[in-house]
Amino acid sequence: MHITPLTGSRAEIGEAHGRAHGERITHSLTVYDRLFQDFVDLDWARARRVAERFLPMIERGFPAILEEMEGIARGAGLDFADILTLNCRSEISLTQASGGCSAFALTRDGTQWLAQNWDWRSDQLHNVVALEISGDDAPALISIGEAGMVAKIGMNEHGLGVCLNAIRSQTCGEGLPIHVALRKILECRDLDDAVAVARHDRVCSPAHFLVAQGDSRALGLEVHPGEPGMLSPDDGVVTHTNHLYAGGGAERVEDFPRADSRPRLARLEALLREALPSRGEIGEGEFFALLGDHDGAPLSICRHFNPDQPAEERMETLFAVVMDLTRRRLTLRHGKPCESDESLTVQFGDAPGVDPDQARQGIER
Predict the structure, then answer these.
(1) CB contact at 8 A, 269 and 302
(2) pLDDT classification of 5: cutoffs 50, 70, 90
(3) Structural domains in the chain?
(4) H-run or E-run covering 122
(5) Where is the Peptidase C45 hydrolase domain (predicted)?
(6) Are 127 and 330 in contact (CB under 8 A)?
(7) How far apart are CA 310 and CA 97, in angstroms?
(8) Burial letters 3-13, b for 16+ CB under 10 A, else e
């Protein structure tokens, strides 16, 4: 897997994205057309009409991103409505579809780590893309996600990172769609600005955003149309899977977690607090091993395709990401972390231990 550099204005970034990944974007539309029909009985044409309701919310909260979406559509030879619908796919399918992602933040020996598995439908495996976006009006950032979408999981040049856990719920109100809000967070300079996206812009459907910065700060945000629930670190650790438990404003939101969410959370906590060595250096290798854990399989932290499960439960780990936010380094393993040690590493320069010659370059190893 390689990283796609995108530079310039919003329109230029979008068009380059669409040209580079047009085939993947078109395939994503097919995947979500099928998902919408299976889960919420909507074909793509009707899903496009549903997505229109989110347009005014984006125009209020993040109008600049619409220019980039229009560029993606032009570059890929698609309609703007297709790209809007793709970026609102969580809101359209929120009553039925939720992933099985496991995420954590850990502060250790002055280093802020942020990591997760992204678990989703296997037919999206080859539509995963790594984007390095250097815009004219925003910080440089790395986003790992689905082709045609403006953001998902990543970090920026200020050492600010964000992870995502899906929450299955029937709540949908006013605010930014999840993936648009993730991009706005990735364009923030610091953690306080990221929290402001959740508190002031709001997010129109529930999710969990785990945000952290290289100065050893981390916070879990259970976002929704109201005041977010917040999870502060406990002895330097914040963990989350796919159910709400922060309390606060999110306690009024009803969620419908799958049976494996709480056991995965308990296992993640145990691995971070008991299995990692208490002394000595730890790095990406140890964290990828943790994300490759199979305890409780098939409903484990590292998920594999299981044909015995109902169709809506058949998800698997499509990628794993480990971020050293203090050094502003992101390492990606495409596919399951248990199956390969090949990775893509991207690093921003001017940080401790960073070779300036490697600044903002993708390094495959």
Answers:
(1) no
(2) very high
(3) 98-364 (3.60.60.10)
(4) none
(5) 108-337
(6) no
(7) 12
(8) bbbbeeebebb
Q: What is the helix (H) or strand (E) element at residue 159, kind and residue range? A: none
Q: Is the dihedral of CA 138, 141, 144, 147 positive or negative?
A: positive
Residue 268's nearest CA partner among 89, 154, 126, 115 is: 115
Cis peptide preceding 298, ω within 30 of 0 = yes
Contact 183, 209 (CB under 8 A): no
pTM of the full predicted structure? 0.94
Alpha-carbon distances, residue 185 vs 189, 243, 288, 305, 356 (angstroms): 9, 22, 25, 32, 26
Q: What is the dihedral of CA 141, 147, 149, 155, to 10 degrees?
A: -20
Read off the pLDDT of each residue in 17-30 and give the average, rounded to a whole number.
98
**319, amino acid identity:** F
For 187-238, how does the pLDDT look when each residue is reduced to its tens digit (9 = 90+)? 999 999 999 999 999 999 999 999 999 999 999 999 999 999 999 999 999 9
- CA pair distance 109, 154, nearest whole angstrom: 22
Strand order in the sheet with 128-135: 3-8, 128-135, 141-146, 153-156, 160-166, 207-213, 217-223, 229-231
What mean pLDDT comes out for the span 108-112?
Answer: 94
- Give tens-digit pLDDT for 145-164: 999 999 999 999 999 999 99
Reported as a single tens digit per residue, the pLDDT across 297-354 is 988 999 998 888 777 667 899 999 999 999 999 999 999 999 988 899 999 986 554 4
The identity of residue 355, as a single letter, is: D
